[in-house]
Amino acid sequence: MKDLMGKAIWDFYHDKNAEDLLTETSISEIDELPVEYFFRGFEDMNLVEQKALELSKGKVLDIGAGAGSHSLYLQKKNLEVLALDNSPKSIEVCQLRGVQHVLCSNILDFSGQTYDTILLLMNGTGIFESLDKIDIYLEKLSSLLNDDGQILIDGTDILYMYDRDEDVGVMVPADHYYGEVDYFIHYKLDTEKPIKWLYLDFETFKRAAENNGFRIEKILQEEDSYLARLTKKDLN
User: Fold this and answer.
1) Of the candidates 204, 199, 235, which has an alpha carbon nearest to the alpha carbon of residue 218?
2) How many other C-beta atoms lie within 10 A of the C-beta of residue 207?
3) Is the confidence at residue 158, as pLDDT, over 60?
4) What does each C-alpha distance from 177 to 21, 79, 116, 159 come to in angstroms?
5) From CA 102, how far away is CA 143, in angstroms rounded?
6) What is the pLDDT of residues 165-194, one digit of tens each?
7) CB 222 within 8 A of CB 48
8) How far is it between the farthest Cα atoms of the chain?
9) CB neighbour list of residue 14: distance below 8 Å, 6 or more residues apart
10) What are phi and psi of 189, to 5 degrees?
């Protein structure tokens, strides 16, 4: 992994001529992602992020912490937060910005503690990679969650990105779920190896969550994106 996103975050923090990240997927063209987006304060975050942070409580695991903006906000609310990211340079910046507890790790390799709130934002369902891996990730998240804890996660339904035909409706792929894409990151003329990324509609997510022992509720809907809360079903 070249850690291009981490390099961009590191460059921006250290004022080292950071450039915009360029992102694209297997179904979309190149788009600019300003690096300062990862350094937003609460007032500049979208409503989904703000609501998730307002609902966070207890001991928090911030998965995919990036530059640490969500973790820093929760620390100011006197919550104990662990910022987790598999980007070494992003985690370094989290620490430099004042996040007290940080760890560079893939979520599937992480264990040892349980949490009252697990936070996955900025299309948190993306880490699931594909439909056939959702069970693996939900099992891992369940193992990290206290019995009375909550998972706050956002997702986006990208059905709107597909063409429509008057006769057959939306023209989605026949060989895979339409929200499964390859995600590419470009930075300063370099390109990261593509990753698998999952944009998940709420109803599909609901079925998967319930099949893995969770209750799920939609907390907020903003256009094609939503915030969901998962809690464990009664153990008895």
Assistant:
1) 204
2) 12
3) yes
4) 27, 38, 32, 10
5) 20
6) 766 677 778 889 999 999 999 999 999 999
7) yes
8) 56
9) none
10) 65, 15
Question: Which single residue is written with the structure tokens 């349980």?
Answer: 114
Determine the average pLDDT of the residues in 114-143.
97
Is the per-residue pLDDT at 53 higher than 60? yes
Q: Which domains does the chain have, with CATH numbers?
A: 4-232 (3.40.50.150)
Burial of 159 (C-beta count, 10 Å sphere; 0-12/13-18/19+):
middle
Contacts 24+ apart (CB under 8 A), 164-171: none
